[in-house]
Amino acid sequence: MSVNGPRLRAAARAVRAGGVIAYPTEAVFGLGCDPRDERAVRRLLAIKRRPARKGLILIAADFAQLEPFLQPLSPSDRARLAATWPGPHTWLVPARRTTPRWLRGRHDTLAVRVTAHPLAAALCRACGHPLVSTSANPGGRPPARSALAVRRRLGHLLDCILAGPTGGAAQPTAIRDLRTGRRVRGA
User: Fold this and answer.
1) Closest listed residue to residue 44, CA positions, set 127, 143, 154, 125
2) Which residues are CB-contacts of 120 (< 8 A; sequence separation ≥ 6)?
3) What is the strand order of the sheet 29-32 is part of?
4) DSSP character for 142?
5) What DSSP designation does 155 have?
6) What is the 3-state secondary structure (H, E, C) of 28-68?
7) Are 9 and 127 spatial neighbours (Cβ–Cβ below 8 Å)?
8) 3-state secondary structure 157-176
9) Which of 56, 88, 176, 182 could connect to 26 by a Cys-Cys bridge, CB 3.0–4.6 Å?
């Protein structure tokens, strides 16, 4: 699939209109929406059956898309992130106090990733901002790894499904805390 095709443009339009979409990521299909749209995020959380207190991940095409949500970083922290991005590395980074609770949950950090998945990155560029990214499955169920699986499980609840291959990773990305380097999820 072209990273500039009509389906990509349709998915970006759905996000800009306040919709919830599904799209491929490094390992699984993700559910996404505009992170600044509280109504869309709350709808995504309801579809996912995920408590808001847990917080969400934002993916972006580049670090500049994430900066408005994050506290200013030291040069060494920026270098640490840059060494892993773009790529399948999610980091917990100190969030600005203005970052909505519907994104960070009960935390003072926000989970963020600059994705290397070409279609997910193109979608972020087409939207002009990062996207919420949580696995496309109701809580407690295995994540969907294809557009067909998303359509079967959640299609009636979504505004758009952007078909395309996942990145082939066996597991969702590991999550590390930028302040401590500790892994909080994954191998």
Assistant:
1) 154
2) 23, 24, 25, 26, 30, 59, 131, 133
3) 160-161, 21-24, 29-32, 131-135, 57-60, 109-114, 89-94, 174-177, 183-185
4) P
5) G
6) CEEEECCCCCHHHHHHHHHHHCCCHHHCCEEEECCHHHHHH
7) no
8) HCCEECCCCCCCCCCCCEEE
9) 88
For residue 46, count other CB atoms closer than 10 A to its CB: 12
Per run of 10 residues, the mean pLDDT along the chain (length 187 residues) is: 80 98 96 98 96 96 98 97 95 97 96 97 98 92 94 96 92 90 81
Q: Residue length, the chain? A: 187
Give yes or no for a contact between 86 and 115, defined as CB atoms under 8 angstroms apart. yes
Task: Give the pair of three-digit tokens for residue 187.
Answer: 């191998």
Domains of the chain, first to last:
6-185 (3.90.870.10)
Answering whether pTM is above 0.90, one says: yes
